[in-house]
Design goal:
- The chain is an alpha/beta fold and 750 residues long.
- 39% of the residues lie in helices and 13% in strands.
- It has a 9-stranded mixed β-sheet with strand order 7-6-8-5-9-10-4-11-12, sandwiched between helices. Strands 13-18-17-14-16-15 form a 6-stranded parallel β-sheet, with helices on both faces. Strands 1-2-3 form a 3-stranded antiparallel β-sheet.
- Helix 7 crosses helix 9 and helix 11 (203-220) crosses helix 19.
- The N and C termini lie far apart (102 Å).
Length: 750
């Protein structure tokens, strides 16, 4: 059977132009062929195995479908409301095309038929399956509404409203013949013999293919990869496939992560992380290894036990099992993302597959991270420098790829470390959200400190987990202080549409605890600890006692941390300590520094009190900070003073105390079974309660109040449910008032 070729008339339509130079253009058919070629390369050489499985088409059909979408995604440019304006910029091609049609259109109606919407309308008119048509209609990042599509050209039951945007009056036959010719040619070039062979798509498949089409369209629209041609030419088939091959080589995307050997092999874990796995890490790796249909894994374990390494080891096993091509590691703040970036970079460089991979630090101030900047300077390759650098480090297999540096493309890199909002944005109805879904669908997703989000963020996190569950993406959640109720909500969000069975897993209070899903089953195990538990004792402390306490605590050396709840208070305490303790170095760290200063302070802090700090670096150092110190930062304090805060945050702050077992880093007087933690400040109370606390009542349930006192504290919940006004007196059998817990305000204590 003789193959069709495109007619001269169809080759005359414009796809791209240079507004600054009317001497160059790109015919529409060439742009479509460029996009189709990139779509095929993306499917065959870049798309992870797991994403191909999520789409639900076999390898050949997926390649054919991707090619077809590339060919027809801009068929809406074969309309007079698009061709008319763009051809005004190209006098010579316009003159040639006007031999066949007049290019008349109504400018005031043009906005009702933008070319992405027109593409979906034309494809539906040509009997293309609705799913494929909607992918073409959404290739600019926003799906079209069904009503708008039907209003364009109508259907069998009603006429369209905007047919004048598609052809000039009396010239319908010419324009419809061009649509049909291009559509049939796209079927032929994609390997389909008729429209009936085109597949029906599921909703997840539509989203993922839309993300892939957006990516291919952006590459094909970049004149660095696909240059324009002189207007005297209409393009030639002889330019292909060399034109697409050159562009793909210039783009130089990294290959997806392919795990050949994982940490379950003897010595592999120690090779990756520098130490053998502990009991928590072994339990996680064993559970992941025996899971048949991996889903969501929730690890609850104490601070400093190595949850990050457990998650990375588990991710290797999951990627080997399911064919995921990368990792997304989400953290609550920029500071925590910066702190863990170096650890993940070191892990990524030790991957044994021998391939080069792309890495992305995804948050608003990533360009201020020195390690990330050095990575860009040292290993990034651009189009103008395709030759290998003879001086490059042959062991460096991680790079920051130029194409993934944009905000919308960031999640498409192989290894992404960023703030959790990068994941939450996948749950929003926003433009180009399909790119985020495409990036996440091919990864193992790890979320650290999953307890640390408020009700609004949890709503978006639950919706994002629902989407990840639809894509069957393995998810690992890490926490030290996760409530049982929230654990159940997270599992049910992931299993949306599938029944989460009731059972003891919903109320289990074991610790450390691992909960995971295997298909529709929910399994759980309490992890026995072989190490001796550490006891932490808390002691009350007033601000007046702070200076003497720190001087005494650090007289043998070491470092101390003072964590308070507001920036203003941190600044005031730091100023006071500098004045009263001139022999110590006082460093302030909070979230309100200018970002370059904050990045520099953060890096210096990690060096001085991080895992590999020396006694000399830590000696006579006092760090005063706010909540940015309390989670995910791998810092180690010898002595801790913290302001009162919610219990889960208090535990996180205690997790910075004696975090590592390097005994030489801890002064001798603090190496003892009970680690001290000092709680700072007076307890506050409600205005209504101050009438009862002015006489010395502590405001603490079960404490004593000097008689006579009409104290309202008959119930422990008095702190949050004010009983002020009750005539009930404090029972005389209460304990003695604990020192340092006065509720008097400074003005009342004079």
């Amino acid at each position: 059977m003789r193959r069709r070729t495109l007619s001269y008339e169809v080759r005359l339509f414009a796809g791209k132009t240079d507004p600054a130079n009317s001497g160059f253009w790109l015919p529409l058919w060439m742009h479509l062929r460029d996009t189709a070629g990139i779509m095929v390369y993306l499917v065959q050489r870049w798309l992870p195995k797991s994403v191909r499985q999520h789409i639900g088409l076999d390898e050949d059909l997926l390649t054919q479908t991707a090619c077809f979408l590339g060919w027809v995604h801009d068929i809406g440019k074969l309309s007079c409301c698009f061709a008319g304006p763009i051809m005004k910029l190209l006098p010579e091609p316009r003159q040639r095309l006007e031999k066949y049609t007049t290019l008349r259109y109504l400018a005031q109606n043009r906005g009702h038929s933008l070319h992405a919407l027109a593409s979906e309308a034309i494809l539906r008119w040509l009997k293309c399956p609705n799913g494929l048509a909607s992918v073409a209609g959404a290739h600019h990042g926003k799906p079209q509404t069904g009503r708008n599509v039907l209003d364009q050209l109508g259907d069998e039951e009603e006429e369209g409203c905007w047919e004048s945007n598609y052809w000039p009056e009396g010239e319908q036959e010419f324009w419809e013949s061009c649509w049909r010719e291009l559509f049939d040619y796209a079927l032929q070039e994609s390997g389909f013999s008729s429209v009936d062979e085109l597949p029906q798509l599921t909703i997840p498949a539509e989203i993922l293919l839309t993300g892939l089409l957006i990516m291919a369209d952006w590459v094909a629209s970049n004149t660095r990869y696909f240059p324009l041609i002189p207007v005297e030419e209409v393009g030639s088939d002889t330019l292909y496939p060399a034109r697409v091959d050159r562009a793909w080589e210039a783009l130089d995307l990294t290959s997806p992560w392919e795990v050949q050997s994982d940490v379950t092999e003897p010595g592999a874990f120690a090779e990756r992380f520098g130490f053998p796995p502990n009991e928590v890490q072994r339990a996680v790796l064993e559970a992941v290894s025996r899971t048949q249909e991996p889903g969501i894994f929730i690890l609850e374990a104490q601070m400093g036990v190595g949850k990050t390494e457990a998650a990375l080891g588990a991710a290797e096993i999951l990627a080997k099992h399911g064919g995921e091509g990368g990792i997304f590691f989400g953290l609550p703040t920029q500071a925590t993302a910066n702190g863990i970036f170096g650890r993940l970079l070191a892990w990524a460089e030790k991957q044994p597959d021998g391939l080069e991979h792309s890495i992305k630090l995804a948050h608003g101030m990533a360009e201020l991270n020195e390690a990330y900047i050095r990575l860009q300077q040292d290993t990034v390759r651009v189009e103008e420098d395709l030759e290998a650098d003879p001086d490059a480090d042959p062991e460096s297999r991680v790079m920051v790829h130029q194409w993934f540096r944009g905000n919308k493309q960031g999640l498409l890199a192989d290894f992404v470390i960023g703030t959790v909002d990068q994941l939450l944005l996948a749950a929003l109805q926003q433009k180009h959200v399909m790119l985020r879904h495409l990036g996440l669908a091919g990864k193992v997703v790890v979320i650290d400190e999953c307890h640390a989000y408020d009700a609004y963020m949890n709503c978006y996190l639950d919706r994002a987990l629902t989407w990840l569950g639809r894509y069957k993406v393995p998810v690992i959640l890490l926490s030290a202080t996760l409530p049982a109720k929230r654990r159940v909500e997270l599992v049910r969000a992931y299993l949306n549409g599938r029944t989460a069975p009731d059972g003891p897993w919903q109320t289990c209070r074991g610790y450390p605890l691992l909960t995971w899903t295997d298909g529709e089953k929910v399994e759980q195990t309490t992890i026995p600890l072989e190490t001796e538990p550490r006891r932490v004792e808390t002691f009350p402390l007033t601000e007046e006692q702070l200076t003497d306490t720190l001087r005494s605590a650090l007289r043998e050396g070491g470092c101390a941390g003072v964590i308070v709840n507001t920036v203003k208070k941190a600044q005031a305490i730091a100023a006071r300590l500098r004045a009263e303790l001139p022999e110590f170095e006082v460093v302030v760290f909070h979230a309100q520094f200018l970002m370059p200063d904050r990045a520099a302070k953060e890096e210096a802090l990690m060096k001085r009190i991080g895992k590999h700090s020396t006694p000399e670096q830590r000696d006579k150092l006092i760090v005063v900070g706010t909540q940015v110190l309390e989670q995910s930062l791998d810092i180690d304090l010898d002595f801790l003073v913290t302001e009162l805060c919610p219990m889960d945050l208090l535990l996180q702050r205690i997790g910075r105390l004696h975090r590592h077992e390097a005994g030489l880093l801890v002064p001798g007087r603090w190496r003892r079974p009970a680690v001290p933690c000092w709680t700072l400040g007076r307890r506050t109370s409600t205005r209504a309660a101050r009438r009862f606390t002015g006489n010395g009542c502590s405001g603490v349930p079960a404490s004593s109040c000097p008689p006579p006192s009409p104290c309202p504290m008959t119930l422990p919940r008095w702190c949050r449910m004010s009983m002020a006004g009750s005539p009930t007196l404090c029972p005389p059998a209460r304990r003695a008032l604990r020192p340092g817990w006065s509720t008097k305000r400074p003005s009342e204590s004079k």
